[in-house]
Please model this.
Amino acid sequence: MSSTTQVSGQTRGLSGVPLVVMISVIAALGGLLFGYDTGIIGVALLGLSQQFVLDDTTRQFVTASIIAGALVGCVGTGPISDRLGRRRTAMLVGLVFAVGSVLSAMSPTVMILVLSRFVLGLAAGSATQIIPVYIAEVTPPAHRGKLVVMFQFMVVFGITCAYFTGFVLGNEWRWMFALGVVPAVILMLGMLVLPESPRWLLSKGREDEAMSVLQRVRSSPDKAQAELDEIKTVSNQPQGTWKDLGQPWLRPAIIVGAGIAMFSQITGNNAIIYYAPTILTNAGFGDNAAVLAAGGGGILITITTLIGSLVIDKVGRRRYLLSMIPGSIIALLIMGWLFQGDAPVDPSQQWLVVTCLVIYMALNCGSFGVCIWLIISEVYPLFVRGKGASIGAFSHWGFDLMVTLTTLSMIGAIGLTYSLWLYALTSLAAMVFIYFLVPETSGRSLEDIEQALRERRFYPFQQRR
Model:
């Protein structure tokens, strides 16, 4: 008996939408770990600075170490998931998260902490590659958007948990890192009872198992059979190599996947998340007030992401992005104006800074955050989907690393005002990119999107030839 059949037996009581939701929630715990472990450093830096000597450069290295690990993790995960399967790879991600959390909590020096967070980064990068792909390949097109976005909801929920955990624990940064073990163990145990991706199974020639999974996650045997037949139209190719991604007809998917990931970072959202408490203390807030204010932003991001997950399949990915980004640009412009000059913000305007900060976080993170991993999981063909998603994740983490390593230095060089205005300019460039190049994928099967690529009708205004 195969492992997939055994696993199906363990969850035989569930089928259809309830099983699909259970799959999405458990798998998305990888997003909670990603959000918690990346968000907690913004709070932990306040306690770390009291125990270790940290200048701006050292703070940036401590923060960026998890991102450097993510660059390695996201590239390595694609081939691993193509070979071992999506489910087993997700279990490995949970194991690495647990190991990295323990090592971070026990770090005796800054250098050991940097290396430990590099290990966490391996898991975080892997999670952004494998979890959205797994959910996208299991869920039906009508619900794919909201369920893949469950991953991002858990990311921002994890960030919010990180801020308030930091507030409760104060300067106890070791406990902040150690708590990441709990969801990591739940992810590993949860994935034990979930089925494998039917698309991955079919790509390995295991048609009977793929059909068994589809019958359990679709509303009727006829729909399961129809989807199996559609998947078979694109699954007869051998597993793609990295070289295959260089084929001209795949270039639009590479541009869109890597481009949307790039803009999610150079518009400043992770830089603001990582350094929000630092920015607010520079504005004149005390440490606790700064953490609470940043936590308020995290709550608003969580609410926005939840709303986005409910409407994304109806509104569409492209329209949702284009409707949210303008508000974040306005918030950045006003916040930059408030920070003009070297003196702390006038006390009467401090809460206007907080308002602009949380609005920016909600609209920017609530737009890119809702759509980035969803789009990356949708635009690549099945035979290179694992490797294509790795390229999208690599772009995300690569630009995240660049922004993280330069944010505090950039603020020191040109000032916070011009730094925020630069993020506003790149946000405007993102809107141009989305308008002309990002296709609408809502309501379309993954196989239909692949066919559009092959027929050179992928971009929004591209005509059928």
The chain has one domain: 13-201+238-454. Residues 1-11 have pLDDT under 50 and may be disordered.
